[in-house]
Amino acid sequence: QVHLIESGGRLVQAGDSLRLSCTASGRTGRTYPRAWFRQAPGKEREFVAAIRSIVGTTRYADSVKGRFTISGDNTIVYLQMNDLPTEDSADYYCAASNTRTIVPSTDSSAYDYWGQGTQVTVSS
């Protein structure tokens, strides 16, 4: 079992930067790709970014490319978010997968473990 805990979410103003953290505990040695998803009120959960740190592979949603950076390893993963617009307001979730893939998936069903989420609110 793997436990994920997100932190770093808070209220910021449009244009600000924010870094989210996801700390893993438990059998982290068996988890491979890690990802961030987000869900805004009334919307479906959507992919944000993913990383397969051992091979250095990352993927990003088109909406965050150039503004967000995912980094980390099996024990802690970060999501650096820059130049935040109000549209980035959402609950952000960290996820981990047991599947050893070189290219991490953007599909939430590929991830086996999830954190409880951290709220990011961007005010105008």
Shape: globular
- Category from helices, strands and their pairing: mainly beta
Question: What is the share of helical residues?
Answer: under 10%
How many beta strands in the DSSP annotation?
A: 11
| Cα-atom radius of gyration | 13 Å
Order of helices and strands: EEEEEEEEEEE
The biggest beta sheet reads: 7 strands, mixed
Query: Distance between termini?
Result: 40 Å
Overall mean pLDDT stands at 94
Percent strand: over 45%
Which stretches are low in confidence, meaning pLDDT under 50 for 5 or more residues running? none
Output the number of helix runs: 0
Annotate the secondary structure layout:
Layout: E1 2-7, E2 11-13, E3 18-26, E4 34-39, E5 46-52, E6 57-60, E7 68-72, E8 76-81, E9 90-96, E10 113-114, E11 118-123
Parallel strand pairs: 2-11
Antiparallel strand pairs: 1-3, 3-8, 4-5, 4-9, 5-6, 7-8, 9-10, 9-11
How is this structure best described in words?
The protein has 124 residues and is mainly β. It has no helices and eleven strands. It has strands at residues 2-7, 11-13, 18-26, 34-39, 46-52, 57-60, 68-72, 76-81, 90-96, 113-114, 118-123. A hairpin with a 4-residue loop joins strand 5 and strand 6.
Short description:
By secondary structure, the chain is mainly β. The chain is built from no helices and 11 strands.
Key traits:
single chain, 124 residues, mainly beta, 7-stranded mixed β-sheet, 49% strand, globular
